[in-house]
Amino acid sequence: MFGFLLGEALRDLRRAGRAAVSAILLISLSLAALGAFWLLSSNLGQAVDQFRERVKIIVYLKREPSSAESGALVERVRRMPGVGTVKFVGKSEALGTLKQVLGKDAAVADSLPQNPLPASLEITPTAEGSTVEGARSLVTRLSALPETEEVGGGREWMDRFAQGQRLLWMFGLGVGAVLAGAAILTVATATALVLHARRDEMEIMRLVGAPEHVVRLPLLLQGMMQGLIGAALAVWALVVCYAVLGPRAEPLVTETLGIPRLEFLRPVSVVGLMLAGTMLGGLGGWLARGRPEP
Amino acid sequence: MIELHRVWKIYSVGPVKVPALSDVSFRIAKGEFVTLRGPSGSGKTTLLRLLYRDDIPSEGEVEVLGEEVSRLGRKEVAALRRSIGVVFQDAKLLPGRTVYENVAFVLRVLGTPRREVTSRVFDALRTVGLSGRAQAYPAQLSQGEAQRAALARAIARKPLLLIADEPTGSLDEGMAGEVLDIIKDIWAGGTTVLLATHQATLAATLQRRTLTLQAGRLIKDEG
Predict the structure, then answer these.
(1) Which of A98, A125, A153 is the endpoint of a domain?
(2) Which terminus has fewer CB within 10 Å in chain A: N or C?
(3) Does the distance separating the beta carbons of A209 and B81 come in below 8 Å?
């Protein structure tokens, strides 16, 4: 029976002609847009994760502690929640690092009357301490230490970056939603045209006592097939774009974002896109299913 | 088999109420061949539609195959219709399908197994004399052949009741005779038949029980 209904749905799909093609293309377009934003966002997410791992929180101290005091301070900070590793950097070590950074201009540092750099603690947060909320409470705790002069690090920039990633994702979702809405309407229209074309068949089916689900299922299946074909096309377009543009964009991406290579969508995301397309199409078919008999 | 008790069907056209059937009562027993006669607009089609529950009466009771049709839910209506074959004046064949596919279609939608479909379709086509036209499309059929194909579609499901609404209305005398002979054969096989026609001579030729409708009223029940 299901094979027969599937055959009927295929016959309807052929009958829908241009309307079905438009619906399939719109579904492809909306899912390709969604997939492209998804792909960008997941690569940005990867970059954010990498930055997060590299980001250190620096606690500048009011004065340089003695070696016994610094050992106790490091131990106290290490026990704080969200703290991974703690390294004490003395004033002279900080100056040495500055000289290394200055390179051939290191003599400038030697001309200073005294070492202006403060002693500090370099803290690498744990994964828990790397989240926006975790980092915020860690900074609050570190600021409350009596030895602390100031707390700094790359967190604000990284948080803005993560926020940008979320914005991109929301934008992609918005564009995808608008296109998906248009696709649903197009599928509904395409299916409604088929509904009009096959009203004689539906009349005969009802006249001979076919169950209502048998009368309607071909329309739903037709919509789902349109959606599935559209999603497959969208994934194919994404694969082609990734294969063509990926290698060209990779050097730039590596340079700016620090990730070794652009990753394609994970298999689970591809399956998600295919399912989304099938459901979009099914929804269109369901919306166009017409009214049952009174 | 069929029982109508004081059935009224009234259509509202704006504020005006138009009775299509007025106080109609009759019974048809299992295995009968009954002709429903009356001029165009006398209410024949309205009455037939009540029988296969395409409409419900405004008043009164319509009982078909032991079921009071007005009270049936959607599933029960579908179940009732599986026991009724209906043929119309225009054959209502699906134009994109061959004769074979038209007959097979109704069997498939009712879940008949594929291997059973072929034999039942050819049995039905043999009964109506269309075995040789199985692969023809409706546009390639004469009106008489199209009506016979519609009959094949109606009887392939082996219905208990055959309702024929002006099946010969658009046929010439020769073709009409052929179609009537087939309907008589179907009746002889045990199917109850209710045939509506506006042709008085045709009803007379059949020499069966005849119900006569006029302006929605049953004015005669004879034979």
Answers:
(1) A153
(2) C
(3) yes
Which is it for strands A148-153 and B33-37: parallel, antiparallel or unpaired? unpaired
Q: How far apart are CA B100 and CA B77, in angstroms?
A: 27
Measured distance CA(B163)–CA(A28) in Å, rounded: 49
Kindly state whether residues A283 and A163 are assigned to the same domain.
yes
Tokens, residue B134: 């199985």
A223 vs A227: CA distance, rounded Å? 6
Q: Which CATH number do you get for residue A131? A: 3.30.70.3040
- pLDDT for A35-78, tens place per residue? 888 888 778 777 777 776 667 788 999 888 888 888 999 999 99
For residues A44 and A90, state if they share a domain: no
pTM for the whole structure = 0.66
Residue whose entry in the numeric block shows the structure tokens 């037709």: A222
Question: Considering the domain boundaries, does residue A190 fall inside one?
Answer: yes
Per the listing, tokens 């979702």 go with A173
Query: Which alpha helices (H) appear in B110-206, and where do they start and end?
Result: 114-127, 143-155, 173-188, 200-206
Give me the interface pTM, i.e. the ipTM. Answer: 0.85
- HEC-encoded secondary structure of A4-15: HHHHHHHHHHHH
A105 at interface of B, judged by CB pairs closer than 8 A: no
What are residue A137's DSSP bridge partners? Answer: none
| Tally of domains within chain B | 1
Chain B hits for A200, Cβ within 8 Å: 92, 94
Q: Would you say residue B137 has pLDDT above 90? A: yes
Task: For B197, list phi and psi in degrees, rounded to 5.
Answer: -150, 150
Residues of B in Cβ contact (< 8 Å) with A10: none
| Nearest-neighbour CA in chain B from A194: distance (Å) | 14
pLDDT score recorded for residue A53: 67
B196 belongs to a structural domain: yes
Angle between helix A132-143 and A155-197 (nearest 10)? 160
**Which two structure tokens, joined as six digits, stand for A294?**
């009174």
Torsion angle in degrees (nearest 10) through CA of A183, A186, A191, A193: -170
In a domain, B8, yes or no: yes
Expressed as residue numbers, the domain containing A11 is 2-51+159-287
Residues of B in contact with A210 (CB under 8 A): 78, 106, 109-110
Whole-angstrom distance, CA of residue A10 vs CA of residue A77: 68
Same domain, A148 and A62: yes
Considering the domain architecture, whether residues A236 and A188 belong to the same structural domain is answered as yes
What CATH number is attached to the domain comprising B29?
3.40.50.300
The number of C-beta contacts closer than 8 angstroms across A and B is 50
| CA-based torsion, A166, A168, A169, A173: positive or negative | positive
Report the range of poorest mean pLDDT among A104-113, A243-252, B33-42, B189-198: A104-113
Residue A16 sits in the same domain as residue A74: no
Shared domain check, A124 and A199: no
